[in-house]
Specification:
Largest sheet of chain B: 2 strands, antiparallel
Strand content of chain C: 15-25%
Strand order of the largest sheet of chain B: 2-3
Number of domains of chain C: 3
Number of helices of chain B: 2
Order of helices and strands of chain C: EEHEEEEEEEHEEHEEEHHHHHHHHHHHH
Distance between the termini of chain B: 30 Å
Structural class of chain B: alpha+beta
Strand order of the largest sheet of chain C: 5-6-9-1-10-11-12-13
Distance between the termini of chain C: 62 Å
Strand content of chain B: 5-15%
Number of strands of chain C: 14
Largest interface: A-B, 53 and 40 residues
Oligomer: heterotrimer
Shape of chain C: elongated
Order of helices and strands of chain B: HEHEE
Chains: A alpha/beta (479), B alpha+beta (68), C alpha+beta (481)
Helix content of chain C: 25-40%
Helix content of chain B: 25-40%
Largest sheet of chain C: 8 strands, mixed
Number of helices of chain C: 15
Radius of gyration of chain B: 24 Å
Chain lengths: 479, 68, 481
């Protein structure tokens, strides 16, 4: 068992016990990162990481995260480290500030090894929309790792880093976690500061952890939550995020979302999820079917709201204050050429959809209505959580699909998020844990909880994980 | 592109069919009000940092091509 | 041409003189080197978020209270989307259908003392754009333009009036008095020249007596009240000419050129802009505590409008006196203190007249000078009692300014007291006797000659004679000789 096989929690313990040093850990992970076998990383800050490792090793007392390396999705600003958000529009862009959530982890001793690959501006479900090449799924190099946090998921699955940060707007942490056989979590909206997260859809975006265990995810979360004066939508966190220790689900009522267990879900996925739910029963949970009809409108609602917000959020990219404008004769041409050329097709599609949804004459029909459907969804979840403690469903309707399979049909790609989107619209916390295999590929089980019930969610996921005993080592990964 | 967009819009039109009578819009899923900042200065960026990432700097300002 | 009635509404953008910007902690500055007061937020770097300046909210509410507006129990921000290099996010964070201040009314006073009521539609918070400068000074034909983001993000309150104004002069009166109110509130420097107060006018005309609105044009970028008034007049004339010629007014933005007096059309791409307003997801609603709003309301200073009305109705000042004296809070306070101890009208005349005139060369305001309001009151008292004449009083004032001495003392030490009546009569008699030709001319009806005698009397008495009294005495003396 090499250093990279240790979970982050185990690495923290090993560091505390003096069994290894941060520099040793950083070197061990750097060698895997630099091997670039799944193209998970974009910028790698080897020198910076080594310097920080040495500094932390020299401290009289280890900070809580002790000098454990981490990968950061390239949607998060990291001062002086090239940050592209997967787009050519930000090629070579070096932020002059660091995202609050990353800063908090660095202050706690985490060491940023580099930035991970993603769908451009977080728009996509396979990382195939990255302007910097595909990331491969460690379980099958001909398949997608999911998206948009594909690099973050693949790097953890491939054990290049024990954990990473991603961002989730409609499933962009949970779905790649499911496809790569690891844990991914999206917290309650507002739990983690968005300051420094390159915005896609402001009312949906959230930062979250990807790791191999629930306990690791909890540990990262613990050091990030809480109000940030730089983000008006961030929340004072009531209490602490606990590192989970539960081993059973006694007294838990778990609602299975009927609408997400029917047609449209691959049989193999459904089987793995049902099997996991029986395990949950065995741990003392009561499994009941729950109907959330507005779930079916979630996709349409999301694909009006998110593009609308993104059309506005991406308007700032004009090449004037950062980025490199393409040569043009006059300002209008510069806008057109730069944005026309440096944005990929999916980004442009969403900007156009979004502009349309907000246009005078169409606002009420599209954006206005979508906001109201969102209210229905919020209410439906509230009603459901009056009856159950957790909601369960597959994270993704399918296992990882082959590269190139869905790139010709945007809508087919959008369907990948049908299970994860409703929870995002409601702003509720949800986690994906690997629960089995289908045709040799990982299947993710999604659990969702009411707002602020992170501890309940993490405890249940941890207990289930302990019994499922899913082996997160991809078969192709050398020991 | 146009075809793809029309296709997507076709799917999205599903929401037009819903009965949303009396349902108010949700703008924020967080229930916060009055998140305000004291009127106290915070350190600004040194000018060279402010201009650092700009492709076209003219007289310490951000250059913009011909507008007309 | 008076078959048409002008209909005018005004939109005023007021830069708040807070310490920091609307949505970030960069300091507000004026005239500092470019791009020295910026941060990732006001430069709209990827990933940044706005946070509302609480003092800007307080000042916006003060403005609303001063204008008698309803203060919204809850208001939200919206994004106004459009592309322009001085708008780094490519949207302005503003307020759309739920502004912080709702309907109100402003009561101005015309020069003739008549009331001018102007409805206020709303007042809301937003952020200012950055400063875009074109090589060569004008956008058209400039090879290059540059942006300085120091100003970008400055808090603005936009005040919108109902189309209640019916003349350019009313618009100017309203704006001058609105400006005074804002100055009294201490919320802004309100300088049209510096750009901390900007006004655009929406102008249309309609047949007199009609209740429908004609097509309106927007007159922008005027940087003084005078130009605004002239610009509106020119636009009204232009529209009248169009209609008289059987044409139609097109809805457009226009610009007034003060040098030529011409109105030019600024038909720009932003004309029929769809701003795609939607609620700002990065900001949460502002819901001012009603108790706090009551506190703010109770704490409002007496505003120029109320002060002016008091001065005109209770103190007998003219509307013009009132407008001049309410130009600055310090000036009103100065006047009010003086008026407590002497006749207000006389105080007003002396303060806005001779005192300010004499101080002008030194570039000092009355409240910064050595002349206290009490001193002014004393001088007025001396005049009323006949202890000094007007010309002498001017001399006394000069000494008061120079040394800060009380007027009574100056009169004493400089011997400027008014002449005793019999002493004066004796002097007049002497003068009349010594100038028989002029006396005869006066008898013959050449009334202008009286000035000669007054002049002589003033010389003889060192200005201590009252010209009016001299005149009367001369005529009497001449008549009886």
């Amino acid at each position: 068992m090499g250093l990279r096989d240790l979970t982050a929690t185990e690495q923290v313990a090993a560091l505390a016990a003096g069994e290894t040093s941060s520099l040793e850990l950083v070197e061990a992970h750097l060698s895997a990162v630099e091997a670039d076998d799944v193209h998970a990383f974009l910028a790698i800050d080897a020198d910076g990481a080594r310097a920080r490792a040495r500094a932390i090793d020299a401290l009289p007392e280890r900070p809580p995260l002790a000098g454990v390396p981490i990968g950061i999705k390239d949607a998060l600003s990291t001062r002086d480290i090239v940050t592209t958000s997967g787009s050519r529009m930000l090629e070579g862009y070096r932020p002059v500030y660091t995202a609050t959530c990353v800063q908090r982890l660095e202050d706690a001793g985490a060491i940023v090894l580099g930035k991970t690959n993603m769908d451009e501006f977080a728009m996509g479900s396979s990382t195939e929309n990255s302007a910097y090449g595909n990331t491969l799924n460690p379980w099958d190099l001909d398949r997608v790792p999911g998206g948009s946090s594909g690099g973050s998921a693949a790097s953890v699955a491939q054990r290049q880093v024990p954990w990473s940060l991603g961002s989730d707007t409609g499933g962009s942490i949970r779905q790649p976690a499911a496809l790569c056989g690891i844990v991914g979590m999206k917290p309650t909206y507002g739990a983690i500061s968005r300051y420094g997260l390159i915005a896609f859809a402001s009312s949906l975006d959230q930062v979250g952890p990807l790791a191999r265990t629930v306990a690791d995810a909890a540990l990262l979360l613990r050091h990030m939550v809480g109000r940030d004066p730089m983000d008006s939508t961030s929340l004072d966190w009531p209490g602490d995020i606990d590192v989970p220790s539960a081993t059973d689900l006694q007294g838990m009522r778990v609602g299975v979302v009927e609408e997400l267990m029917g047609e449209g879900v691959e049989p193999g996925v459904r089987l793995a999820v049902e099997s996991a739910l029986r395990v949950a029963e065995g741990l003392g949970a009561t499994i009941v079917p729950v109907s959330l009809p507005s779930t079916l409108s979630g996709l349409a609602t999301y694909y009006v709201l998110a593009p609308a917000e993104c059309s506005s959020n991406l308007a700032r990219f004009d090449g004037i204050r950062y980025g490199h404008p393409l040569p043009a004769d006059n300002l209008l041409d510069q806008y057109e050429v730069t944005r026309g050329d440096l944005f990929g097709p999916e980004v442009k599609r969403r900007i156009m959809l979004g502009t349309f949804a907000l246009a005078s004459g169409y606002y009420d029909q599209y954006y206005g209505r979508a906001q109201r459907v969102r209210t229905l969804i919020v209410r439906e979840f509230a009603e459901a959580f009056a009856e159950v403690d957790l909601l369960a469903s597959p994270t993704s309707p399918t296992v990882a699909f082959p590269l190139g399979d869905r790139t010709a049909d945007p809508y087919a790609m959008y369907l990948a998020d049908v299970c994860t989107i409703p929870v995002s619209l409601a702003g509720l916390p949800a986690i994906s844990i690997p629960c089995g295999l289908s045709d040799g590929l990982p299947v993710g089980l999604q659990l969702a909880a009411p707002a602020f019930a992170e501890n309940r969610l993490l405890a249940a996921a941890h207990a289930l994980e302990g019994v499922l005993e899913f082996d997160t080592r991809p078969p192709g990964l050398a020991t | 592109m146009q075809q793809e967009l029309s296709g997507i819009l076709g799917h999205i039109d599903a929401i037009l069919a819903l009965d949303l009578d009396g349902i108010p819009p949700t703008t924020h899923v967080v229930d916060l009000r009055n998140v305000l900042r004291a009127d106290v200065p915070r350190q600004s960026l040194p000018r060279d940092e402010a201009l650092r990432e700009a492709a076209n700097v003219v007289d310490d300002c951000f250059g913009v091509p011909r507008m007309d | 041409m008076s078959a048409y009635e002008p209909v005018i509404g005004v939109e005023i953008h007021v830069q708040l003189s807070t310490r920091t910007k609307m949505f970030c902690g960069c300091e507000l500055s004026f005239g500092d080197p470019p791009n020295t007061h910026t941060c990732p937020v006001c430069l709209a770097h990827p990933g940044v978020l706005p946070v509302v300046n609480e003092e800007a909210v307080r000042r916006a509410i003060l403005i609303g209270l001063a204008l008698g507006c309803e203060i919204a129990p809850e208001s939200i921000f919206h994004r106004k989307n459009y592309f322009y290099p001085d708008l780094p996010k490519a949207y302005q964070v503003s307020q759309f259908d739920i502004p912080v201040c709702g309907r109100g009314e402003f009561l101005a006073l015309r020069e003739d003392g008549s009331e001018l009521r102007v409805g206020i539609t709303r007042a809301h918070l937003e952020e200012d754009a950055a400063k875009l400068t074109h090589a060569g000074g004008r956008r058209a034909g400039a090879e290059q333009s540059v942006v300085d983001f120091n100003r970008g993000g400055t808090p603005l309150v936009e005040i919108v009036t109902e189309p209640d104004l019916r003349s350019a002069s009313d618009a100017a009166t309203f704006l001058r008095q609105l400006r005074q109110t804002l100055l009294f509130l201490g919320v802004s420097d309100c300088s049209m020249e510096e750009g901390s107060m900007r006004a655009d006018a929406n102008v249309s005309i309609r047949p007199a007596g009609s209740h429908e609105f004609g097509t309106k044009t927007e007159l922008k970028n005027m940087n003084s009240f005078r130009f605004l008034e002239r610009g509106i007049e020119a636009e009204i004339a232009r529209q009248q000419q169009i209609l008289a010629g059987g044409g139609r007014v097109s809805q457009e933005t226009v610009h007034y050129e003060p040098e030529t007096g011409h109105i030019t059309s600024l038909r720009s791409k932003e004309e029929s802009h769809d701003y795609r307003y939607f609620p700002e997801p990065d900001l949460v609603p502002v819901a001012p505590d009603p108790a706090w709003v009551d506190e703010l309301r109770a704490g409002l200073p007496e505003l120029p409008g109320a002060l002016r009305r008091r001065m005109v109705s209770d103190m007998g000042l003219s509307a013009e006196d009132a407008e001049v004296l309410t130009e600055a809070p310090e000036l009103v306070a100065y006047f009010m203190e003086a008026a407590e101890h002497a006749d207000p009208k006389a105080c007003a005349n002396w303060i806005r007249g001779e005192l300010r005139a004499q101080l002008r060369d030194a570039g000092v305001e009355p409240w910064d000078s050595q002349v206290t309001p009490g001193h002014v009151a004393e001088l007025v008292g001396l005049l009323e009692a006949g202890t000094v004449t007007v010309p002498a009083a001017k001399e006394v004032l000069a000494e008061m300014i120079a040394s800060g001495t009380r007027p009574a003392e100056v009169v004493e030490s400089k011997g400027l007291g008014a002449m005793d009546a019999s002493e004066l009569a004796a002097i007049v008699a002497e003068l009349v006797a010594a100038n028989p030709d002029q006396a005869q001319q006066l008898r013959d009806g050449k009334d202008k000659v009286i000035g000669f005698f007054v002049g002589q009397a003033m010389k003889r008495t060192g200005g201590r004679a009252d010209p009016q009294a001299v005149q009367a005495l001369v005529r009497e003396a001449v008549a009886t000789t």
